[in-house]
Design a protein that fits this description.
Layout (H helix, E strand, L loop, with lengths): L2 H6 L3 H10 L6 H6 L1 H5 L3 H4 L3 H24 L3 H18 L3 H28 L6 H49 L6 H59 L8 H31 L6 H22 L2 E8 L9 E3 L4 E7 L11 E6 L12 E4 L3 E3 L1 E2 L6 E12 L6 H4 L11 E9 L4 E8 L4 E3 L5 H14 L15 E2 H13 L8 H12 L10 E2 L1 H5 L10 H21 L9 H8 L6 E6 L8 E8 L5 E5 L5 H6 L2 H7 L1 E3 L11 E2 L3 E2 H5 L31 E3 L14 H8 L4 H15 L1
Parallel strand pairs: 2-11, 14-18, 17-20
Antiparallel strand pairs: 1-3, 3-8, 4-6, 4-9, 5-8, 7-8, 9-10, 12-13, 14-15, 15-16, 18-19
């Protein structure tokens, strides 16, 4: 079943996550109309080839034209209009940069796959293993439901109070009229009527007292729920957002948080209406020790304060600042390159629509620090929040912001205490909510997570390392001095984050064996991969790893890049063991059949490279290991790794070249493991002379990898010498010398 069809069968909570993937830059309409075509393309490959991206961009426009024609046949004018608008927007946005579109589609397809996988895993777990997060959500749902029910009960009680007061007023006026009539009631009847009115007055006072107590309790319940939302749920959501930003599990949809905030706001607005109704009743009838008179000012002030507290915490950054060209690297911004950021107001009330004007401010309230760079925001830095058509949320998205560094006299680099990629900056958003009829005048502010600003794309890996370290170790949004004294990280923390870097861009994270190798690399073998082992920032991103000429993180980043560009399918299907020490490599291959090989990443290449090691046995049946010189992005751009493995040859002197690779570890036949990636044979060669059918085309060529080794290293693979060869050799070399040479070679190998 097509991926898009599977998604549409999921529960609403998963569909909300899908909705978050699409916006006006690449609307969901395209995904819906062109789902089969979109899923038929390898967008990972397209995203790394400019020419192919351009072709696919024009293919997509042609697909939209076809869809427009179908709508024309159906006389569906509205959908024709929408398709034309979508096409114009795509041309405006991606005509000059089709790679960005390919990257967006690639990212969205991967996120959809993650959503499907999550839904499937939760379904398999069954109802008996409901997560703690779901339990907490259910508790809050119940509290919100209880609050709404209390508000409804209070509303009914106030209506009953109003009816009772109207009836009491009528009885009092009737009694007064009868007392003034000449032929009125008898004294006994009058006394009975007064007694009934007196009881009614007593009931009215008791009812007023009950309603005031009920509203007081209702505000106490609201305050407790508000505390849960602001002190627990909102910070937890923000922390989950931090984790999602650095490659962790996708953040729980903000829609649930919005539903809770909106429900509490609606309840508080209703309570304030109840208090106005009580004030009207008080104006009609009051008495000494009237609870309404005594408590109304307190209740009104408390309800208003709770509402202000709720609203002042309702502006959040829904999508953190991110360059569309690097969707997997949010919070790293390059000067002169547009970035996007999206805000949401969690209280979704119609009366707030178009009432909030948000302004973006860079490094607000940051005290001037010597040597630190300053930036100006270019582009439209103010937006009015309005209800989105897709889900009705109150949001504003900044899509065309850029940063420009302020020119400062002198040499900034030598003066600053931190390097460029360790400087943290803040992006804050200000607004003001004024509703005169409600007595609301609230200053609103939201702040993004700290960002790193770079001026050259080569700084991106180091900038991303800073973002990883910060969001892994702290939840403070304003600690811009973090890297003046960065804390150490536990291996248990870092290992998880490292695995996320792979799982966020591929289908596979790091397993225990791979993480063990990285633990030894960072902590040393003596640490025995202690989860509590401390890793300093300098060891992760500044000092060279294992005395190599580049830091640990840049080595990992190079490997990630080579996987994304050339090894994605092999990594996803588990063919690449990747991270394994040479000692462990030999231990795994020692008892395997000759020709068994495994794939691992080179430890000596900063740009990312891969090699393979295979086992042979010498004449004494002892294992001999061979590793080929690592293949970098340059070689892999010319020939794919499966093709290299298929055609690889070892040649010694005049021996016939042979492919020593037979089984992928542990025992998978080479062609079974990689056959699906081999190029398909073409049946029709390129013609050279159409008038001469005998000349069918060029002579076919093929790039192959060949390792040339000294004959002695392949001694075990050489055929025994024939009697004729031995006789010919004996004419020039004595038998004793032949034996001496062979013995020396064997001793050298052992």
């Amino acid at each position: 079943m097509a991926q898009w069809c599977q998604l549409q069968m999921l529960d609403c909570k998963y569909l909300e996550q899908v909705d978050q993937l699409y916006d006006d830059s690449f609307p969901m309409d395209i995904r819906q109309y062109l789902s089969r075509w979109i899923e038929s393309i390898d967008w990972d490959t397209v995203a790394f080839q400019d020419s192919l991206a351009t072709v696919r961009f024009h293919d997509l426009l042609a697909q939209l034209d076809d869809q427009h024609s179908r709508f024309a046949l159906e006389n569906n004018f509205l959908l024709q209009h929408n398709i034309r608008k979508i096409k114009r927007n795509l041309q405006d946005r991606f005509q000059e940069d089709p790679v960005s579109m390919a990257m967006i589609i690639s990212r969205n397809l991967k996120e959809e796959q993650k959503i499907l996988a999550t839904a499937k895993s939760i379904e398999q777990e069954g109802e008996g293993t409901v997560s703690a997060m779901v339990v907490e959500k259910q508790k809050l749902d119940n509290k919100v439901k209880e609050l709404r029910e209390r508000v409804q009960v209070a509303d009914q009680n106030i209506k009953n109070l109003e009816d009772l007061q109207d009836e009491y007023d009528f009885k009092v006026n009737t009694l007064k009229n009868r007392e003034n009539e000449m032929n009125g009631m008898t004294p006994k009847e009058l006394e009975k009527e007064k007694l009934m009115v007196g009881r009614m007055c007593f009931d009215l006072k008791a009812k007023r007292q009950d309603v005031v107590i009920q509203l007081t309790d209702l505000l106490s319940v609201t305050q407790a729920l508000l505390s849960d939302l602001i002190s627990e749920e909102l910070p937890e959501w923000k922390q989950r957002q931090q984790i999602a930003c650095i490659g962790g599990p996708p953040n729980a949809c903000v829609d649930q948080l919005q539903n809770w905030f909106t429900a509490v706001a609606e309840s508080l607005q209703q309570v304030r209406q109840h208090l106005k109704k009580l004030q009207e009743l008080e104006q009609k009838f009051t008495y000494d020790s009237d609870p309404i008179t005594q408590k109304k000012a307190y209740l009104e002030a408390r309800a208003l304060e709770l509402l202000k507290n709720l609203l002042s915490n309702s502006l959040v950054v829904e999508r953190q600042p991110c360059m569309p060209t690097h969707p997997q690297r949010p919070l790293v911004l390059k000067t002169g390159v547009q970035f996007t950021v999206k805000l949401r107001f969690l209280v979704k009330l119609q009366e707030f629509n178009y009432q909030l004007k948000v302004k973006a401010v860079f490094d607000k309230d940051v005290t001037e620090k010597k040597g630190f760079r300053k930036f100006n925001i270019l582009g439209t830095n103010t937006k009015v929040m309005n209800m989105e058509e897709s889900n009705g949320s109150l949001a504003a998205e900044f899509r065309h912001l850029q940063l420009k560094e302020q020119k400062v006299a002198g040499n900034r680099t030598n003066e600053g205490p931190l390097i460029v990629t360790e400087e943290l900056h803040s992006l804050s958003f200000e607004s003001e909510l004024q509703l005169n009829q409600s007595g609301l005048d609230i200053k609103l502010e939201a702040m993004s997570l700290p960002v790193v600003v770079i001026s050259n794309v080569c700084q991106l890996p180091s900038g991303w390392a800073s973002i990883l370290w910060y969001n892994m170790l702290t939840t403070e949004p304003k600690n811009l001095k973090f890297f003046l004294s960065p804390p150490t990280a536990k291996w248990s923390q870092l290992s998880e984050v490292l695995s996320w870097q792979f799982s966020s861009v591929t289908k596979r994270g790091l397993n225990e064996e791979q993480l063990n190798m990285l633990a030894d690399k960072l902590l040393g073998a003596k640490a025995q991969r202690n989860p509590e082992g401390q890793i300093p920032w300098t060891k992760f991103c500044k000092q060279s790893a294992n005395e190599k000429a580049f830091p640990f993180w840049l080595w990992i980043e190079g490997i990630l890049d080579v996987i994304k560009r050339h090894l994605l399918s092999l990594w996803n299907d588990g063919s690449i063991m990747g991270f394994i020490s040479k000692e462990r490599e030999k231990a795994l291959l020692t008892d395997k059949c000759p020709g068994t090989f495994l794939l691992r990443f080179s430890e000596s290449s900063r740009e990312g490279a891969i090699t393979f090691t295979w086992i042979e046995h010498d004449v004494f049946d002892k294992p001999v290991f061979h590793s080929v010189e690592p293949y970098t992005k340059k070689e892999l751009s010319a020939v794919s790794l499966p093709d290299i493995i298929r055609t690889y040859k070892v040649m010694a002197a005049e021996n016939i070249p042979e492919n020593p690779l037979r089984f992928l570890y542990p025992d998978i036949p080479k062609d079974k493991a990689f056959g699906k990636y081999y190029p398909k044979l073409t049946e029709t060669p390129e013609p050279m002379d159409v008038e001469n059918p005998e000349r069918t085309g060029y002579m076919k060529t093929e790039l192959i990898s060949v390792s040339e080794v000294h004959p002695s290293r392949l001694q075990d693979n050489m055929m025994p010498m024939s009697p004729d060869d031995y006789k010919a050799l004996s004419k020039y070399v004595s038998p004793r010398d032949i034996d001496a040479v062979m013995s020396a070679e064997f001793e050298e190998q052992n």
